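Newbie here. two chains, one complex. Structure please?
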Amino acid sequence: LEALYDYASPFQSEPELEASLSPLIAALKDLGLENLGDLRRLKSPFLGARFGSDAALLLSRIEGDFAMAWPRFIPEEKLEESCNLFSPENPRGSENLESLSFSLKQVLDRTCARLRARGLRASALALRLNLEHRAPRSLNFNLALPQGSAMELLKVLRERLDSEFQMRPLAAPVASLKLEIIETAPGLGSQAHFFNNEETEREAWNSLITRLSQKLGPDQVFLAELVQCYLPEKAWRKIIKEAEPKESPVLPAPSPSLRPEALAQPERPSRLLSKPLPFKKPLKRLSGLERIEGGWWEDGYARDYFQAETEEGRRLWVYTQVASPQATTWVHGAFD
Amino acid sequence: MLAELLCRSNFSFLRGASHPEELILQAQKTGLSALGLADMDGVYGLAKAYDKAKDFEEFKLIYGAELSLASPRDLGSRGTRLGLVLHAKSKKGWSLLCRLITASHAGRPKGEALLPWAEFLSLAGSGNTELLALPRWEESQAPTPWGPLHEIFGQDLLLPLCRVLDGKDAERTRYAKEQEARYGLKVVASNDVHAHLRERQALQDSLVCIREGLPLKEAGYRLFPNAERYLKGAAEMEALFADWPQCLEAGLAAAESCNFTLKELRYHYPSEWLPAGMDAQAYLEQMTWQGAAGKFSKGLDEPMRQTIAHELKLIAELGFADYFLTIEDIVHWARDQKILCQGRGSAANSVVCYCLGITSVDPSKIDLLFERFLSVERAEPPDIDVDFEHERREEVIQQLYKKYTRDRAAMVSAVITYRSRSSIAELSKALDRPVRVGRSLRDIDMADYEPQVQALSEQIAGFPRHISIHSGGFVLSDGPLADLVPIEPARMEGRTVVQWDKVDLDIIGMMKVDVLALGMLTALKRCMDLTGYADLAALPREDPKTYAMIQQADTIGVFQIESRAQMNMLGRLKPKDFYDLVIEVAIVRPGPIHGDMVHPYLKRRKGEEAVDFEHKKLIPILGKTLGVPLFQEQVMRIAVDLADFSPGDSDRLRRAIGAWRSDGRLSEIGGRLHERLRANGLSEAFCDRLFKEIKGFAEYGFPESHAASFAMLCYASSYLKCHHPAEFASSLINSQPMGFYANHSLVDDAKRHGVRVLPVHPNKSLWDCQMDYCRLQLGWRICSGLSEEAAKRLIVERSKRPFADLDDFVSRSGLKPAVLHSLALGNAFACFGLEPREALWRVLIMETFQQHQGPQLTLFSQLHPQEEGEEGPGFAALLPYEAVAEEYKSFGLSTKAHPMQVLRLLLKDLPPARTAEARKGRHGQWWTQAGLVIVRQRPGTAAGVVFATLEDESGLLDLVLHVEVYERFRELLLHKSFLCASGILQRDQDSVSLLLKNLSALNPKKALKTHAHNWH
């Protein structure tokens, strides 16, 4: 009787019908039926009267009276644009970046228009340059931030190709090129903003970040975000993110007399060393101590921080270990 | 000299990291002269702190709480919480504090509190001099209303200044100086204590994470920056406040002004019903003697008269007459409403309770110990627990609220605490470690977890997690209860609880009434209604036929002695009178079992071992139990008579027994007991066993008086089972869920006693099972999926005219399709001449017909059910096994046959042996038989041994599985119902069990598949 599932939904396209079958099968079993043969002996009107039209439909499928339509096949969409660089005006194809850029621009315009129509932006793409009588060259672009503007994308591609061609000049003219979008991200909206050029600014920001990361390396371009942690070196982290949409203006702060008694955070140095350094020279203590203890679930830390002045008059942020205050003093930052 | 005025314990629920007792001990150790304990929104930990602080005369505990106060509206941030720590300076101050806390909880969901400013003003008034007020100004999001607070509290408004080395101390000092100058406030030094030692930082951080539902890595600034918020000594605090020592002095001066202790609480029982011109004692005496005249109809003998006089004198000395009268009033009301009730616990030691009708054990028949119940030396409130029919207890509770109003009556709370195993999942989440999900807490193996998690889980064990309601404890008082202790709403609709649990009430000396629910009372009441007995006292006493039945361990459904272990003991102990039942009830408990007292007692009883007493002083104490201590009272008397404990010491021992899991008191007192008993010449072995027994009592032990009360119900239920098995089974089924056995076991047992059981009948059954001329007519309540409401509608419809046939039933009963389906297969429509599958076939079309409300059913069906004709397509009849299985699915039982009877028809090669034959088998005989597993048990007292009960058509057989056998067959035993068991028969007198060696599963489904089905 479990074969009824297959009759109900041979292409797994009717999950609802399939779900409604379990009670039917259970009831048929309760009636002592064991297989489709037993079921066929029941008359269709009897079955329909008890289990509804779906059951009668099933029976007719079993009898072969009623064939099912195959579901439509929809292939996965692939965004790809190509361009033939040979033309009567340019019988040799493109040999340098400048001439290539014109074709690239056309391809990018078309690609970005298609992306925009789908409400998408590109976050990774592949470029294939087919060379005359030579093996093609392929380049993959993983963008630090998604891009939807052809102009900005062109800048990214050009810069990369420029450095690429300097290292490995083209061995032959480019006969044709193909651009494929490998990965997409949601777009910024299908219409441009009426009253400001926010969208353009955000595209420009993304492009800047992408180009900088391409130049300097992916880890070298980041924003610093504050993290709630008492340990200074872990109190921030690197992030990379798109420009935030502009928010409505913030309401004015409450007047000072109504402000809660939240105490000001202790002062932090304007420059923090990435690693604390031992400091052996004499120091003059300037402030009361700030003790931080915690992280016992990992390595653990227990430090007494304070501000101190060097003989030269520099204000430093230093600490000693809680357990051994007499031992080494570490400098962790400096105040301007 | 130092006073700390800001301190949270773990009763601030996941905010403080130390028990109140730890804080008191540490405060005393570090030389603090006073500690102000103030937990958030309650006084939950204060009774415990008070109990600990009593030990130190020089040390002062200041009683306070942190009130959640909504900031006044005119200062903005409406509704922002300000934590206002209030300490009671006097008894009046304490009452005000309790009322404020009560008001802050009123009308809010459980566990939440916030008192609107206006309400605070009206309660606290202006110019208040009874409370010290310390706003937790730093935690508040809104500005602290120093001005308005100053108007209310004047000089008693203090500004707490903390120096916790977090880099903000200078800023804090500047703020404090500013407010001091502006309002003339006193600034007091504090360390904002959250733990007694700095080593609790890890636990403190973990608690924050559990509270916030975050891993430690993400907790950030929710954690404290360091471990400084612990209880610091005078030297440390002086160093911190070297620049401003006046703050320390101000703290001390403020502490000086607080002179309230919980000892001052005076509590009075309600007494408004006293007849004019009579005080409570006189009225109690009058009621008692009146009651005595009724109870002892043959006349009071002199010793009994003296006992009553002695008890009354003691009650008068202690001033507890009101309490007895209150309970009498409740019991009296319940009896008027025909609610069966009976006192249990140590109250059964009192003849006064018997005369007032609170308890039913006749004290002249049994030698009980009144001092266990009430003694001048202990001077503590007696504890009377009363059981009521479980289905009608709510009426009693509502009556209490109605009579005394919610101002004067509230339920006792229960503190739900963390156990090391239960906390492990939460701690693992906090530490971002993998959580292993087990089937139950027992499956958690602590060794699977990292040492850090293990250590924390041990520390957190015993920490309060939340407050819940005690099962039935009520506190009643003459005046408003909220003057003594805050009251807050409980999760259950319509319930309010006081903020102290029963241990706390004991410490404070407040009396509680336990209104408990007992399913057996419901069943007994129903059975007595059917059999015509007016009450329990009307049942014939000491009936030999009943004892003969008990000795056969024929006790399925009987109160207390129906469990496998009890039945096993019945075969060995063979109770022949009421006192034997008292012993039977008490002996199968961790106390006697851990103390290895069971075997010596049985041997002595059988005469296989001489009854000797290690010491002549033991003769009066242990005489009744043949020289073997079985009851908690006996251990206490041994402590007094042979270890020179004062009754007070002995009482401490009793309390230590109750609390030994949470502290080390028991080892300490136990050590002393051991030492003194040895010095008095008792053997090492005896002392060891005694101490083990005491530990067992701590887990679960019955005092003799309690066992006697339960033995009464045990006898009553046995008598009714013996003489009225059909009515008894019917009453048990009607009172389900209760007891050990499911309906099918109860019905099979009734059938074995010759009862004819009639299946559910569409035209006869009521909701409950009922008697139909000595036959048991099953009721609709056993149908799966059928609600009482639906059944009642059906019965109303039937009363118009009986159901003529199935179609009539389906169209008028209004039952849901699933229920109809189940009734059809369970053969409930046999009375309409239909086989189960035919009935189902018809039910199915009727359902569809009704759904569509018309003749045009579907595209494919134009048939009206009537037009189809009576004849169905003809289905194969259900096999006997299938028929029984379907009945089980529909009703949880079968009236046709025991499943094993029909299984034998299906599986031809089953071993032929039956349970009834096993009971006649000899010790050591190899035995193989098949059956249905109905109970599986792994008692903590049995060192890993697992017990199971195998049932077949002729009765029950106990299976005993040793650890290695259990491990081998665990899956089978836990997940299969039909099993074939082989092993060695073990016999001890009439008690027979099978020591299991091999187990295999029977597979009826497979057998059914191979069975040919002929479908026409």
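Moderator note: The radius of gyration of chain B is 34 Å. Residues 6 and 192 of chain B are 5 Å apart (CA to CA). Thread marked as resolved.
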